[in-house]
Amino acid sequence: xxxxxxxxxxxxxxxxxxxxxxxxxxxxxxxxxxxxxxxxxxxxxxxxxxxxxxxxxxxxxxxxxxxxxxxxxxxxxxxxxxxxxxxxxxxxxxxxxxxxxxxxxxxxxxxxxxxxxxxxxxxxxxxxxxxxxxxxxxxxxxxxxxxxxxxxxxxxxxxxxxxxxxxxxxxxxxxxxxxxxxxxxxxxxxxxxxxxxxxxxxxxxxxxxxxxxxxxxxxxxxxxxxxxxxxxxxxxxxxxxxxxxxxxxxxxxxxxxxxxxxxxxxxxxxxxxxxxxxxxxxxxxxxxxxxxxxxxxxxxx
Amino acid sequence: xxxxxxxxxxxxxxxxxxxxxxxxxxxxxxxxxxxxxxxxxxxxxxxxxxxxxxxxxxxxxxxxxxxxxxxxxxxxxxxxxxxxxxxxxxxxxxxxxxxxxxxxxxxxxxxxxxxxxxxxxxxxxxxxxxxxxxxxxxxxxxxxxxxxxxxxxxxxxxxxxxxxxxxxxxxxxxxxxxxxxxxxxxxxxxxxxxxxxxxxxxxxxxxxxxxxxxxxxxxxxxxxxxxxxxxxxxxxxxxxxxxx
Amino acid sequence: xxxxxxxxxxxxxxxxxxxxxxxxxxxxxxxxxxxxxxxxxxxxxxxxxxxxxxxxxxxxxxxxxxxxxxxxxxxxxxxxxxxxxxxxxxxxxxxxxxxxxxxxxxxxxxxxxxxxxxxxxxxxxxxxxxxxxxxxxxxxxxxxxxxxxxxxxxxxxxxxxxxxxxxxxxxxxxxxxxxxxxxxxxxxxxxxxxxxxxxxxxxxxxxxxxxxxxxxxxxxxxxxxxxxxxxxxxxxxxxxxxxxxxxxxxxxxxxxxxxxxxxxxxxxxxxxxxxxxxxxxxxxxxxxxxxxxxxxxxxxxxxxxxxxxxxxxxxxxxxxxx
Lengths: 301, 244, 322
Fold this sequence. Notes:
The structure holds three protein chains of three kinds.
Chain A: H1 2-30, H2 37-41, H3 47-57, H4 63-76, E1 81-82, E2 87-88, H5 89-124, H6 129-143, H7 146-159, H8 169-195, H9 198-205, H10 210-221, H11 223-248, H12 253-262, H13 266-294
Chain B: H1 2-6, E1 9-23, E2 31-45, E3 49-53, H2 60-68, E4 75-80, E5 83-84, H3 85-88, H4 91-94, E6 95-98, H5 112-123, H6 126-131, H7 134-140, H8 157-171, E7 179-183, H9 191-208, E8 211-216, H10 219-225, E9 228-233, E10 236-241
Parallel strand pairs in B: 3-8, 3-9, 6-7, 7-8
Antiparallel strand pairs in B: 1-2, 1-4, 4-5, 9-10
Helix pairs in contact in B: 5-8, 8-9
Chain C: E1 2-13, E2 16-28, E3 33-37, H1 44-51, E4 59-67, E5 70-71, H2 77-83, E6 88-91, H3 95-98, H4 105-116, H5 121-134, H6 140-143, H7 152-164, E7 170-174, H8 182-199, E8 202-207, H9 210-216, E9 219-224, E10 227-233, H10 234-239, H11 244-251, E11 306-308, E12 311-313
Parallel strand pairs in C: 3-8, 3-9, 6-7, 7-8
Antiparallel strand pairs in C: 1-2, 1-4, 4-5, 9-10, 10-12, 11-12
């Protein structure tokens, strides 16, 4: 039964991925200009040279042709060339991917590790003064855009002379803080809802209380919405990491991506988007697996 | 009693079967067949009460839903006063279904009057609408006229049950046979409320010649209310008669 | 063992107070089965939850309830947690809703053990396994099931297992046969009686169906609109009821058919009217508006409980008004 569920979710993920790839191709095509746009303005370039370059870079193929040839070469492991750097894209992206993953995975783990216990605590202490204080802090954090958060962190770090662009602590902290409010709110809401159900009262009636009640009885029952949230939190982290990396100078995919967009470095952009889509799909897939493991009701066909 | 028995049968069911096909999963080809009802015959004269008794899973609810037109039978015939219910699809005009916990089938945001008018709006029969009187319907069900403007959620359990019956009656076509199916409707009621409901149902039957099909697992309720009892097990009727 | 004195539960809803249970006084002795008979809205479940202080914050409790030397109304939450499940346990209604949907039944039973003892996980499971077998769920497959995979009767047995695993002295069961058909009902009642006898515990059985109490109760208390209107030995209350409400209620019970075949009047001598709204209870006896035997004094004051033989009854027809 598990295999069938996995297969179903895998098909989902593949369709998702295909959809994203096609969609991003279309968007990129729609964006005005291409890599050689700047070169066109250069009076020293003759139209003939331009046309030849275009041909070489494959920029005058139609959208479908570009898409299909990309898929074809990707299947062979050839992800295209970066026009700016004149290097294969994979060589450029791979080291950067490692850096980005270092940030996002750590932030993922950290934010969930804080959100779950804190969420349990505030649900258990519902409407107490602590709960309210935490609620206010979280709302403030939620209202703060990632940009502002990153700049603020940067400011503080620089003032404290503690900033070093190779130190991952600051970017991880910023990412985690950015992701925390939503997670915390959902954890708390899911737990409060579960705590009002008849079986929670029945458990209390049997004398179950404290950490045993919250962590071994109520949290598993609240896992369903949280497992779905897991996939979404991965998505959120990927998009925030872009911004944070650029602002804090972390050598991940983010800065490269931004640069590539500005330069219309087609394949670099496309492949970066694909990479993000891949992480998103993996995150969603992991969320589905988590759901299967945590909620036995999903297992009923 | 004799007069009723020699009247032409109102409801006639022949060879009713209902088989469900369920697939194991999205990717499997194997289908499982569930034979919920395997050949059931019934004769029910107008104005009588039939009780179908059985344990859960015996198929009694499925039979009731087929008669009410809520389910399409796999095979078999259902005739009501000479017309086939299955092929004509007009079952709802003559057969109404009252569910277990009748109060739960009422929309809590409706007023009592809305709840009564709802089935008439659904069939869009302006002639029936103009002839319908909320006050009269309430009175027949033993409810005071003042509840017409209250929300259904504000009624007591007993009042909700009465309203569910009144609504079922409102949905029936006044001309022609009228059958009310009660699927475990009296099962989880408080005893005093149930007694009142039984009295109401008996009165209505006497006054309007209603026919009842009572689905229940409670043998003493069946014995009290029914002219005939059919015992079902595993999709077939295993015993039948005025007393079991 | 349990002595309740003048217990009252009042819900605060906005500006009004709803007295859901009033002036409840009764005793439960070791080893007996006491039935609490009442219809919806009589306050029976609220009474039980109130004893264990499981009611929401909006409920105000007053009065006394002394259990084995502990005053429950003044006990700390920690003391109550120790008592719940281990000395007084509660079997709630609606088995499907009262069980955790994502945890296997054996783990749900061991959770109760873990809450009250310092045994290891394995030892808790062992105890859980033993008690599940005692209630009739004896295969490993059943133990490892989730609640939605079990039938109604099986779920009820799991709830009972949870309630007895720590060998309590008092088990309170709320409508244990509510959603079950006739055979399962019988089986559960037999199980309850035998378990209670084995444990030497007392059982308080809450129900609206007198037939259940006729089967296993020793004493019966009848509740109406938040008050106990009659109590006494089972045979007396169920066969020779004194209070007009009890009499009316018992007349609504359907007997097994005697056979015959003669057309009989199917009307029942039902009690007219319905329960009063809790916000609008008039002074005087709460049953008075529906009572056939009412006296003028019934409207003015509430009757106190008096003894009539070995039965206690709160009605002006018996005994004198103070």
